[in-house]
Design a protein that fits this description.
Elements (H helix, E strand, L loop, with lengths): L4 E3 L5 E2 L10 E2 L13 H15 L3
Antiparallel strand pairs: 1-2, 1-3
Length: 57
């Protein structure tokens, strides 16, 4: 079963891993929520570092 993907370059939807424009396609939806999220700490840390870099924190 194939899933719909969204191109990171042009924003078009496709079923292929690579879009016609040459950009990479990825899943357009965030991962499902789980209360036992193993990677939440890493995501929060990365987001905090990004905000500090942009001067938002």
């Amino acid at each position: 079963m194939k899933h719909i993907l969204k191109c990171s370059e042009c924003g078009a939807y496709t079923l292929k891993e690579e879009c016609g424009c040459g950009g990479k396609a990825a899943a357009p939806k965030p991962p499902k929520y789980s209360p036992e999220d193993k990677y939440a700490e890493y995501r929060r840390k990365a987001k905090k570092e990004q905000f500090e870099k942009e001067g938002l924190l």
